[in-house]
Amino acid sequence: MKNKSVSELLYKIADLMDVKGEIFFKTRAYRMAAQTIETLDEDIEVLVAKKRLQEIPGIGKAIAKKITEFVETGNLVFYEKLKKEVPEALLLLLDIPGLGPKKVAALYQKLGISTIEQLRVACLQGRLRDLDGFGEITERNILRGISLREKTSGRVLLNVAYDDGLKVVSFLKICSDVIKVSIAGSLRRMKETIGDIDVLASSDSAETVMDFFVGFGDIDRVLLKGSTKTSVVLNDNVQVDLRVVKPESFGAALQYFTGSKEHNVHMRSIAIKQGFKLNEYGLFDKDSEKFVVGKTEKQVYNKLGLDFVDPELRENTGEIEFAKKHTLPKLIKKEDIRGDLHVHSSWSDGSDSISDIVVAAQNKGYSYIGIADHSQSLKVANGLSVDRVKKKIKEINRLNKKFDDITILCGTECDIKSDGSLDYPDSVLKMFDYVYVGVHVPYKVSDTSMTQRIISGMENEHVNFLAHPTCRLIGRRPPFEIDFDQVFDAAKNTGVGLEINSFPDRLDLNDLNIRRALQKKNRFVIGTDSHSIENLDYMRFGVATARRGWLTKSNVINTYSLKELKSILGRG
DNA sequence: GCCGTTTTCGGCCCGACTGTTTTCAGTCG
């Protein structure tokens, strides 16, 4: 699969063309093609070989030719020439807030600036203010933008943004002039990382709400303040944008500000075709400019002949076509989860006793809870020796007699060793209620051997689930470069459920791979990988990721009753 | 650069805010 590298190449070309000053629609065409390929289920190399690229919407003759050259030769002359005109390093400057392609181009052409460090020095020396369109304030803003990016690298993990978002929403609810308030943007779509938090409120007195908002205690500074939009930076360096609209526009605005951008572009083009105009204030008749609907999102979708689209699906990867045909999946909900099977206790590296974990699980309304501690060779995580496994099983049997409305299952997160063998013998594996397998150390292995290692691990007859399949840590460790087709096929053939690990820096599998595996009819399990009782709450992020992967309740094993679960686990 | 039940040419989503201007370009989402 070269899909990822092809899509990255097209994105880069689009950015470079922007700086070069190409017309907007041309660069947009490259971005749309890049996005399509990024989320494509088919292998781009196969499409190239079969000369079927142009069947993909958004890929025409010119882009197809470039993709073919790149896939076949590993090189693209057009791109190499482009890089000579516009240095690739300039793309880093585009990440600085306030700098777009035009300003970056001016900085490069007039002052020869191509790195962040050169830009910082030029700002400090006051050399930008002489350029057309730049001034002293621009220099100060750029310096601020540079230091902000350095501190946060731009994005935060979902759970951080989620907590901040909840706090802001609760604060705004106190304001009596706020009628409705909701999270919007990528946080509402529950993307794995969040650039800034979008919050939407409805009110008849926007100014009052804005004044109230800037009084929020956690604000470090106010970036801009207007009557419809105010942006602030919180003390933890996360940016929050608040928009305020009239109540009759709340639904249209929520749709608009939830995005994604690509979803919205598609929505608006559908509106135009049907004689409407769609913006954040509502759906309007194109000719008379008369307001049609806008109070709720559902009204907007329905008026355009579409079913309501859940926010997690709004990435323009087919959801609008499904909404049109009324065939969108009924997505899994947090309430569907009957238990968590990936929980570590103080028997290995968790911080809480099994008994305390069970009480916490009861409070969540779970009907079962699975304690899956590490296996023996993972010494750093206090992995369980065979002797301690037996003791733990006894302890769980004892606790099961004590708790009568919840069942405790004894599992393990068993290491798949470098040679693909498992860290316990079969005689021990069959003592557990279920077996998770996973790779922990060593993880710097070439892609081909890692694929085989994982597959070998899943082939053991006692194995039920594959933990965090790619082992990525968002922002810290890249995912394994495994052959997903092979791994998903093997999981399907062995009946092993693929985990969606809910830990905010893992979210592994991710949305795209979930959807790929779903098409291969794989089954899934959503686990929190909890190491403390508080971590059990991460289930919401795993469920959100499953929703982004288009999963329904029936795709996920831990939505089943205890009886159904036990039958799937094959242990009576 | 892509696309077509009006079209093979001429469109392509839309509005707010800022900073630099003196009516608007650039950026952002």
Question: Would you state the CATH class of the largest domain?
Answer: Alpha Beta
Q: How would you name the CATH homologous superfamily of the largest domain?
A: Metal-dependent hydrolases
Can you name the CATH architecture of the largest domain?
Alpha-Beta Barrel
What is the CATH T-level topology of the largest domain? Answer: TIM Barrel
List how many beta strands DSSP finds: 17
Describe the structure.
- There is one protein chain.
- Strand 11, helix 17 and strand 12 form a beta-alpha-beta unit.
- With 572 residues, this protein is α/β, with parallel strands linked by helices.
- It has a seven-stranded parallel β-sheet. Strands 2-4-7-6-5 form a five-stranded mixed β-sheet, sandwiched between helices. Strands 8-9-10 form a three-stranded antiparallel β-sheet.
- The model has no long low-confidence stretch (mean pLDDT 91).
- It has four domains: 149 residues, Orthogonal Bundle (DNA polymerase, domain 1), CATH 1.10.150.110; 90 residues, Beta Polymerase, domain 2 (2-Layer Sandwich); 77 residues, Beta Polymerase, domain 3, CATH 3.30.210; 236 residues, Metal-dependent hydrolases (TIM Barrel, Alpha-Beta Barrel).
- Helices cover 44% and strands 15% of the residues.
- It binds one DNA strand of 29 nucleotides through helix 2, helix 4, helix 7, helix 9 and helix 14.
